[in-house]
């Protein structure tokens, strides 16, 4: 049964678009940096709070000729399943945010616990689950692939050739070039899955077609110790800065040979963290090293104390600082020690040194309530958090912001202009060497 709803309810870039980093953070091993949470002031309509949704960033070339960075919200579960395409972006005054409803969706697209990626300026939705069916005594899981074109406002169903993969929810997915890579999840029969599959969707390029063709699902052959069955985990593609300009040349077995001193990372590949299996939550970091045959699983040696084991957390890559940011999640084993199963802590993985750092809270910062199954995305230099479940309730439909740079936005109760700190400013969107697709 669902907990009662709370908050304001509505009526009923991996080209994935990444910015080139400017510089990497420099820490002493024992120092944790302060951060400040804010609750964004967003007037007008807002989407309903939810769990199991996805939130991802897309750069869009607008009709006025400017570049707009949008955080796209899709799917999720509250009083009902959701299928609307909604995005958040800076308002016309550039002093705050606004929510925009772009597409109403339909019943066939309703889902939660799915995964989402960005490819060629489009949103790629994979799998997920429907509402629990009391008659069948199970929750139907999905294995479909949907492509949403924000310029045309239309959906494409991608049909792979040959045998398809097992339907699943709470899996992870990333785009590596034109290859869609998924790992793990939970099946309709409540089985935790240990499989790694890839699908080349490069043929699904016709934005006017109702059905796009793709290659075949292939089970990726790897070496090294695998993570095993896993669900509710997170995954991010991490590359050296200059390689994001050459995404079309990247695949699981091939990486451009580019040497860079800017925005370095210790190991390139797909980073997996946390999640759960039948034995409980995990806190291990695994890296799938790509650009070689076969790909290799690495259980890396990471300096520093690792985060508490968790699942249903968020993990976002901030390439301007070469860091992964982990927030929240759930660990029922914590209840005996702390009286709380839900988390709202922030952890940083320094990718140039492979070191864990926990960020300390400032006294004036108001962190989001502890939660899991929320969604998050970087919009500009702000990590935005939305939705999720708390100990007793759905979380409010507020947007919480964790600012990484100097912040021009207006927040509740004050106009916040952050002091310039040791975190250097990143370039503005107009200065970035990114080329979003033109608006047709």
Question: Can you tell me about this structure?
Answer:
- The chain is mostly beta strands and 440 residues long.
- It contains 1 helix and 32 strands.
- The strands form 9 sheets. A 5-stranded mixed beta sheet has the order 7-8-9-10-14, with no helix packed on it. The protein has a 5-stranded mixed beta sheet with strand order 16-22-21-18-17, with no helix packed on it.
- A hairpin with a 4-residue loop joins strand 8 and strand 9.
- The longest helix has 4 residues, at 335-338.
- It is globular, with a radius of gyration of 20 Å.
- It starts with 33 loop residues before the first strand and ends in a 25-residue tail after the last strand.
- Residues 1-32, 206-210 and 407-440 have low confidence and may be disordered.
- What is the general shape? globular
Q: How much helicity do the residues have?
A: under 10%
Average of the residue pLDDT scores: 80
Number of helices: 1
The number of E-state strands comes to 32
Residue share in β-strands: 35-45%
Largest pleated sheet? 5 strands, mixed
Distance from N terminus to C terminus (CA atoms, Å) equals 45 Å
Structural class per helix/strand content? Answer: mainly beta
Strand line-up of the largest beta sheet: 7-8-9-10-14
Radius of gyration: 20 Å
Tell me which oligomeric state these chains represent: single chain
The low-pLDDT segments are: 1-32, 206-210, 407-440
